[in-house]
Structure formats: structure tokens, C-alpha cells
Design a protein that fits this description.
Blueprint (H helix, E strand, L loop, with lengths): L1 E5 L5 E7 L2 H4 L5 H14 L59 H17 L3 E4 L9 H11 L6 E5 L4 H7 L5 E5 L5 H6 L2 E5 H12 L2
């Protein structure tokens, strides 16, 4: 699958890159997408939530009133969950939300996400570029030239560029990652995918590995 390469001003460079059919032309597997995105979102949870239960409340365990004859329900101590400042019943505990997804399923999910972008023509290949200094205005000019300034975009670089990354840092609808940081969730979450020319070969070779 051949795709034209444009420069940062949106003009055709006359070059083309080959998007592997085994990566950008597979039949999307919805369940693999679901599993990979679910795992990614689960890993964002810290799992540090905690409340004190009855046994963890500090205070006296003395019986606060006699068992019978008061006309009210029996109560064993001030730690009773029904009382103010009492323990929490079955409160949240510290836990890990990590989920296991097999390597082959994750690879299939990423291929499916990339294939959907290619199929929907929501993918652009741009020649490698860098900025002399970090400047948001420079990055927005690139987005304007590519016609994606009004969309949530994801730029995938072949190698890390601090100036490009910092130029996009203040933009809510734009994100910059390297091909090594690319995930299914980031692809699916973006409305338009922008691939740097150097990132295409890396993605082709990495996802074709069996």
C-alpha cells in the first residue's frame, strides 16, 4: 500500500512510502482492540484507595450500653459502622488493577487500530522535521498545513525530539510520541494519525515480527 509523503507545509514531496498490508491492511479484530484498550486504561489506575474498616478504627471497644431494655438496637462499640466516625463496611482496599493480555493479542490490536486509520483515510505520512526551538506556534502551523488543526491528532516520530514534543505539550488536542511509545489506545483515541517518514519502517518491522 503506497502513501504519498508530504512536508510540514502540507505539500507533496514526490516520494512515497510502503505501508505493509500485514500491518495497515488487516481485518480489524474488535475484541483484541477491546482487550488492549481495557488493559491500558486499567493500568492508569493507581489502586491506592483505602478506607478504615471496623477493626482499624482507633478507640475503645467497651460496650456503650446494655444489651436489652433500651428500646433501641443493640450496639457493641463506637466502631460500629452505623455510628458517626465508625468503620466503613467493605470499604475499598489497596489493590493492583493490572491485567494480562498476550503479546500476540496486543500486536493484533495495534495492527487493527492502524488498519482502521488507513481504511478511514485518517492517516498522513509527513517527512521528518524538527524545530530550532520549542514553539507552540510552529507546531500549530504544521497542523494547519496538514488540515488537522480541528481534530484530535497523534504525531508519531521515528526518534525522540524534545523541541517537537515541547511545542505540542500545551495543546489539548495534539500529542507527540515515538514509535516505541505507540499504543492501541493512543491510536484509537486520536481522530487523525500523523506518521513521520522514519517511523513507518519501524512500525512495519516491529509489528511484522512473529
Amino acid at each position: 500500500m503506497k502513501v504519498s509523503v508530504v512536508d510540514q507545509k502540507g505539500k507533496d514531496t514526490g516520494r512515497q512510502v510502503d505501508l505493509s498490508k500485514d500491518v495497515f491492511g488487516v481485518d480489524p479484530h474488535e475484541h483484541a482492540l477491546y482487550l488492549d484498550v481495557k488493559q491500558y486504561l486499567a493500568h492508569q489506575r493507581q489502586g491506592t484507595h483505602k478506607t478504615k474498616e471496623r477493626a482499624e478504627i482507633k478507640g475503645s471497644t467497651r460496650k456503650i450500653k446494655k444489651q436489652k431494655g433500651t428500646g433501641t438496637a443493640r450496639a457493641g462499640s463506637l466502631k460500629n459502622p452505623l455510628f458517626r466516625s465508625g468503620g466503613r463496611v467493605f470499604g475499598p482496599r489497596v489493590r493492583s488493577y493490572d491485567q494480562k493480555v498476550n503479546k500476540n493479542v496486543k500486536r493484533l490490536a495495534r495492527k487493527s487500530a492502524l488498519s482502521l486509520k488507513a481504511k478511514n483515510k485518517s492517516l498522513t505520512v509527513v517527512e521528518d522535521f524538527d524545530f530550532d526551538t520549542p514553539k507552540t506556534k510552529s507546531f500549530t502551523a504544521v497542523l494547519d498545513a496538514l488540515g488537522v488543526s480541528d481534530k484530535k491528532s497523534l504525531l508519531v516520530l521515528g526518534a525522540a525530539s524534545k523541541n517537537v514534543y515541547m511545542s505540542a505539550r500545551n495543546l489539548q488536542r495534539a500529542e507527540v510520541v515515538t514509535d516505541a511509545e505507540l499504543s492501541t489506545y493512543k491510536i484509537v483515541n486520536a481522530q487523525h494519525l500523523i506518521l513521520a517518514e522514519s517511523a513507518v519502517n519501524s512500525i512495519n518491522s516491529n509489528l511484522n515480527t512473529k
